[in-house]
Design a protein that fits this description.
By secondary structure, this protein is an all-alpha fold. It has one domain. It has 4 helices and no strands. The chain starts with a helix and ends with a helix.
């Protein structure tokens, strides 16, 4: 997990706020794609790619937080 610890906090936070929440209106893509996933409508490859693209930074930020909390 050293590669995760080397990721700068600012990059992860800015990436999460911009790419994770874009577009801001009418609904962020990440929320839309998660809703589609839970409703069983996430079947097109472009939608799956979109979920991975918009969800990458929030997942990395969450991992970085977990690693930081476990570290003595």
């Amino acid at each position: 997990m050293q590669w995760l610890q080397r990721l700068p906090w600012t990059v992860l936070i800015v990436g999460t706020l911009t790419l994770g929440l874009a577009p801001f209106v009418p609904e962020p893509h990440l929320l839309e794609k998660l809703r589609m996933l839970f409703q069983g409508e996430l079947i097109r490859p472009i939608d799956i790619f979109d979920l991975l693209l918009h969800g990458a930074f929030p997942v990395l930020l969450l991992g970085r937080v977990i690693v930081a909390l476990k570290r003595p």
